[in-house]
Amino acid sequence: MIKQLAAQRGLETPQVCPGQWAQTREGWISQFSALQYGPIPPQPSILSWDQNGKDEPAGQGKGILKKMVLSGEQIHIAGRFHFPVEVLLPDRAGKAPFFVYLSFKPLSEDPFPVDQILSRGFAVLHICYTQVAGDDDDFVSGCAPVAGARGENSAGKLAIWAWAAMRALDFAQSLPQLDLSRAAVIGHSRLGKAALLAGACDTRFALVIANNSGCGGAAPYRGKQGETLRDITGRFPYWFCPSFARYAGREQELPFDQHQLVAACAPRRVLVGSALDDAWADPQAEFLSCVLADGVYRQLGLVGLVAPGRMPVPSDVWQDGLVGYHLRAGEHALKPEDWAVYMDAFEKI
User: Which of 48, 191, 244, 296 is in Cβ range 3.0-4.6 Å of 187 for a Cys bridge?
Assistant: First the structure.
């Protein structure tokens, strides 16, 4: 029934060869870069960081907060860039697994469950996305110039926010408190799209988490309910390269679909979270993406999605394989119970 539903939407699992997976994966990433997101800006020629003030207690004494500013230079542009990264470190012995968290708000305004995260031994590198680049068509302010001049196939804002997550991971290598083999990238909604893109492209992330990422994220365009390619490129053209809008109403002509971005995380762990009432994102499409990505993982000899062979219902949490999915009751949001699911999965790594 599930595969029939995917077929009705015009979706199928691509055939891959284990011996050629690296080349296949790079080919998919190249297509996403060339036709949808634009290329993620390159690693900076210079990257440095400075602490802004002294360490502060965090999470009711369960950890400390370091306020950092990352700055650097790109070879292909004039001038420097800089953006803040706030680092939450748990009070624990040994190296901590950590989340690179693309957030909508500065840390002081973000209601995410800091206490629970720190008490379970996780660290967080917190990035407020608008402190990297504005959520608009301005490509000259903030860090937006790292993408170069705006052109038909230049990087949109999703690629720039993904780039920032990757730079935070560069910086993480300087922190002896962090376990670099257990790095996760996480985001919600448009930042779930950016997190999925960063995680698919940067194999240093051991865990990739896309929460309610919908259209342009984990949900395939073919047969998409709720928000469509035409909707998203009409309202937010600056998230993508300008030429992507030509596929509005022509999704069948795309040489890829979003389940391939989920599958491009192989052989690493990827988690997709949906909310029942989030019709605009289309939870069914997000789940089908996991089912189709599972087919790629299985061809590579890996255990992908472990699920009972039915459509999910609220409170289903399926994360025993490398492709995880959960469906929560309620609306479009990143809630404490979502964080709990993601931390449970992270502990399996």
Answer: 191
**Domain 2-346's class?**
alpha beta
Taking 90 as the threshold, does the pLDDT of residue 297 lie above it? yes
H/E segment holding residue 299: helix 283-299
Contacts of 174 (CB under 8 A, 6+ apart): 49
CB 254 within 8 A of CB 228: no
C-alpha dihedral over 85, 90, 94, 99, to 10 degrees?
Answer: -50
DSSP string, 186-248: EEETHHHHHHHHHHHH-TT-SEEEEES--BTTTB-STT--SS-HHHHHHH-GGGS-GGGGGGT
- Residues annotated as part of the active site: 189, 332
Beta bridge partners of 80: 73
Place of tokens 């060339």: 34
Among residues 319, 336, 226, 240, which one has the least CA distance to residue 272?
A: 319
The pTM score is: 0.98
Exposure string for 10-28, b = 16+ CB within 10 A, e = fewer: ebebbebeeeebeebbeeb
Tokens of 303: 């255990």
Please tell me what DSSP assigns to residue 43.
Answer: P
CB–CB of 238/291 below 8 Å? no
Single-letter residue type at 232: I
- Examine the pLDDT at 205 and tell me if it is beyond 70: yes
Q: Which of 124, 85, 122 is nearest to 106 (CA)?
A: 85
Q: Which two tokens stand for residue 252?
A: 């069948």
The CA-based angle 72-126-333, given to 5 degrees, is 135
CA pair distance 124, 170, nearest whole angstrom: 14
- Whether the per-residue pLDDT at 78 is higher than 70: the answer is no
Contact 82, 112 (CB under 8 A): no
Contact indicator for 126, 103 with CB cutoff of 8 Å:
yes
